[in-house]
Amino acid sequence: MLLNADLTVPLVSFVLVSLALFYIHSRLFSQASLPDGLPWIGAEGTAFSRARAVLLSVVKTRQFLEEGYYKVYISFPVSHPKQKNTGLTESQYSKQNKPYVLPNLLTGPEVIIPMSQLRWLLEQPESTLSQNEVNRQFLEADYTMLHPNIIRDTVHEHVIRRELTGQVGALTGDMVEEIEFALEQNWGVDTKEWKEVPVYDTIADVIRRISNRVLVGLPLCRNKDYLASSGSFSRNVVITAGMINMLPRFLRPILGPVITWYDKLHYLNCARYIVPMIEQRIEQLAKNEKSPSLCYKEPNDYIQWALSHSSKHWDPNERTPCMISKRLAVLSFAAIQSSVISLTNTLFDLASSPFAEGFLGDLRKEVEQELDRENGTWTKRCLARMIHVDSTLRESMRLCGFVCRGVMKMVVAPEGVTLPDGTHLPCGTKVGVTSYAIHHDEATYTGAYIYDAFRFSRPSKDAAKVKCITTNSSPTSHDDSITKMLSLVTTSDKFMAFSHGRHAW
Predict the structure, then answer these.
(1) Is 339 exposed, middle or buried (0-12, 13-18, 19+ CB in 10 A)?
(2) 422: left (phi over 0), alpha (psi -120 to 50) or beta
(3) How far apart are CA 336 and CA 209, in angstroms?
């Protein structure tokens, strides 16, 4: 017995040390699911150099993306717009169709391919390259998304694409009303006295209210307890996912539910309001089906759309109030956080611009003119014509968007896949293209590191002729004869703030 007791401590210590070394190796040194021979950005080729690059990826991902975009694969570095000029010519940059490995501590290394292979990437079927699988891993969806079906069967995506897209015009008045109410609550209406406000927090509240006006309608969209829980759940998803990502895989099933318990408490508080509402709607629909003479007028919100869609779904679980409420919580996360970040950045970009006064004056003028054309009523047509407003948002997302990769997919075909240049990627490899480096390429955007609010409201054929914003003159205004411009939600190989292709948000 004494011998066994004496062996226990060293045995346990050996197991713990072995597990720690295995975790460090898998997180920092492993090249599993990566092809041989590809250069690593931020590393010199040795195992310890790669491990250092993986650690640095937490704070240097954007720098690595720029380095990978501009660096030529030879033994000396090259310059890009934010580095000192080394005298190399444009033809020596690595925009020469060469893939590389981008270190990533949280979700593992990624293969970044040149933009010349983007079309090929987008054309691959989901059974070969899956963007959904990348999203599932990044969000640790098995733990954070409340139910496994939500990420596997994106019912809510179909509902939004089919219903919301066609209802935007009908919902404009409701959204404008909610915007006015939310801004009055958060910023006030006093035009004489200055007031200090926390931009991110107040914008988050405004976006929550607007989104929920569409998702659940009045009066719930103004219930402070519901809004607080909905906001907390939405804000915590990515943070919680990051914590789970850092766990060894064998511990995730054990500790994942523990880490997400706080988020689930917020969801349960939301469900306390949502589930009875859904049950009441189901009961009302059943009554109306039995007695059509009741002439029940269906509310025009996500809950009603989801009920209509779920009634035709093959899985009976999709028709339950619990599942619909869970999908609603996840949809709130998708709708709120990206909008909050984008709008907050836009406000700061405008306020910090040396041309802020001119930008704001032109924006006010455009809004007033377009509203006058609609007799003071906000309409879908009115919004579509506000190209300066649209460009202002689009430019901010280009300059400081919240994503750095334009498209990212995972190889899910068991046999792997071969890139157009002959590089074979095994199953499990993440492969994509950069958006950050494209958005900051001087060859694509003149003054790429400068906030030019009306950049996208100019005709593309004249863009190269526009005087650089670094001069002391304000950018030229939009010519009213131009009627067809790229809108905020239009993606391309030069603008991927919402990703690009079938899975663009």
Answers:
(1) middle
(2) left
(3) 10
| CA contacts within 13 A on the Cβ side of 293 | 1
Give residue 299's pLDDT band: very low, low, confident or very high (50, 70, 90). Answer: confident
Listed in sequence order, the residues at least 6 apart from 416 whose beta carbon sits closer than 8 Å to its beta carbon are 424, 425, 426, 427, 429
Structure tokens at 14: 């050996």
> Token digits for 408?
């990212």
Check the CA dihedral 289-293-294-296 and report its sign: positive
Q: What is the largest CA-CA distance in the chain?
A: 92
Burial class (CB in 10 A: 0-12, 13-18, 19+), 200: middle
Q: Which amino acid is at 423?
A: T
Residue 352, judged by CB atoms within 10 A of its CB (0-12, 13-18, 19+), counts as exposed
Distances (CA, A) of 116 to 373, 409, 427, 433, 434: 44, 16, 22, 10, 12
CA distances from residue 283 to 286, 301, 315, 321 in whole angstroms, order as listed: 5, 17, 20, 11
User: Bridge-partner residues for 432, per DSSP?
Assistant: 112, 408
pLDDT at 241: 94
- Among candidates 303, 274, 298, which has minimal Cα distance to 285? 298
The single-letter code of the amino acid at 8 is: T
Check the CA dihedral 47-52-56-60 and report its sign. negative
Q: What is the pLDDT of residue 36?
A: 81
| pLDDT above 50: residue 121 | yes
Are the C-beta atoms of residues 244 and 256 closer than 8 Å to each other?
Answer: yes
Q: DSSP of 200-229, one letter per residue? A: HHHHHHHHHHHHHHHHT-TTGGG-HHHHHH
Two tokens, residue 265: 């408490």
Distance of alpha carbon 464 from alpha carbon 478, whole angstroms: 15
- Residue 95 tokens, joined: 């925009």
The SS3 assignment for 316 reads helix
Q: Which two tokens stand for residue 455?
A: 């950049």
Write down the pLDDT at residue 503. Answer: 55
pTM confidence score: 0.83
Most confident of 21-30, 71-80, 494-503: 21-30
Give ∠ CA 276-206-278 in degrees, rounded to 5.
Answer: 10
CA-nearest of 271, 275, 254 to 263 is 271
pLDDT tens sequence across 131-148: 989 988 999 999 999 988
Tell me, what amino acid is at 285?
A: L
